[in-house]
Every structure is written in C-alpha cells, then in structure tokens.
Amino acid sequence: MKKFVTIPLLGAAAVALAACGETATTTEAASTEATANPITAEEVAAAQQAWGEGIVNIGKVSTDGGDVKQAATDHINTFYAYEDGKEVLFKPTLAAEDQFRGNFDEALSYFIGTEGTEDGGFAIKPWTNVRWENEGTIIDSDSALAMGNYYFTDTDGNDTKVEYTFGYTRNADGDLVIDLHHSSVPFSAE
C-alpha cells in the first residue's frame, strides 16, 4: 500500500500567532516561506530518480577511468545537506564498524572507498540502474520523509534490494537535499 501524507502544521501555527497579535520571528518567517513553497511528492520522486542516476554515474566514471573522487564529491554536494552546514544523519547499508556518516569525508569514503577501512566503494561497483518503490511519503511543508525499497541493478542485470528511509529539506537555493539517509538489507532468518 503506497501512502502519501501532507501535514500543513507550519501554516496553521503562523496563522494562530498572527491572530494572537504576536510579531513574526525569523523562524516564523521561514515557516511562512516554506508554506509558500512546500515540498511536493513530485519533487521527492525527481530527487530520488536524480540520486539514483548520480550513483550510476559514479560507477560509470570509475569504469571509464575518470575522476571518481570528483564525481562522488559532486554527487554528495548536490544531493546531501553537508555543504549547507546542516546536520545529516546518514546510516549506509554496508557499514558495521563506522555505522554513521555525519560528515562529508565519511560519506565520500562510503561511496568511493578508503583503503584500510570497511569502505569498499559502494558507488563504484558499478550499478547500471537504481529503481525506487516508495512505501510512503510524508510531507510537512518544509521537510519530507520517504520510505520503501530501492533496487540496485549490477552489470549482469541482477538486482540488490535495499530498504531505505530518506529525509529531505530545501537548501538555500531551494533545491531538495538529503538530511536523513538510512538504508539496510532486508532481514533474513537464515
């Protein structure tokens, strides 16, 4: 069952404060701006598609002998909120020793690998496609959460199923960026 929920709480709070005669603060002004330009389900789907294409591109750059570090840097700066100075909660799939990647360098290591660590370079595999199946999306005007399964297709056409939760917010340019990324392999009783 696919779910989509929109929660217009911020607009209601701003109206309630205005009715009480309170002056708007910077936070309330930001809330009003977010209400004027709320995140949409279509934007979340487009961000997911573009993220997947970015992962495929990193693998292609690696296969072609290009600058993998630059490709991964561009990907992270485009799709994650690190560059905007926001906190990012990132728990990648293939991470056990260093489970959480709270800064840019740790995310880069996960995507392209670092010798002497558990990071083998998830994005340089290479993958030929990333397909998303959202279980649901919750939108709260200036943030969104999406949860479901995504499938990474390898060069032999085999899919690897991964469970995910992604959180999105807008950066200063108004683009969606990831501030929460949790993914894991499905539970197996074996």
List keywords for this structure.
28% strand, alpha/beta, 5 helices, six-stranded mixed β-sheet, 190 residues, single chain, disordered N terminus
Distinct helical segment count:
5
- Rg over CA atoms: 18 Å
User: How far apart lie the N and C ends?
Assistant: 27 Å
What share of the residues lie within helices? 25-40%
Low-pLDDT runs of 5+ residues are 1-34
Beta-strand percentage?
25-35%
Shape: globular
Number of beta strands: 6
Structural class from helices and strands?
alpha/beta
Give the spatial strand order of the biggest sheet: 1-3-4-5-6-2
Mean pLDDT equals 79
H/E series: EHHHHEHEEEE
Largest sheet: 6 strands, mixed
Please describe the topology of this protein.
Blueprint: E1 3-6, H1 9-19, H2 26-36, H3 41-63, H4 68-79, E2 89-91, H5 104-112, E3 127-139, E4 143-154, E5 159-170, E6 176-184
Structure described in brief:
The chain has 190 residues and is an alpha/beta fold. 35% of the residues lie in helices and 28% in strands.
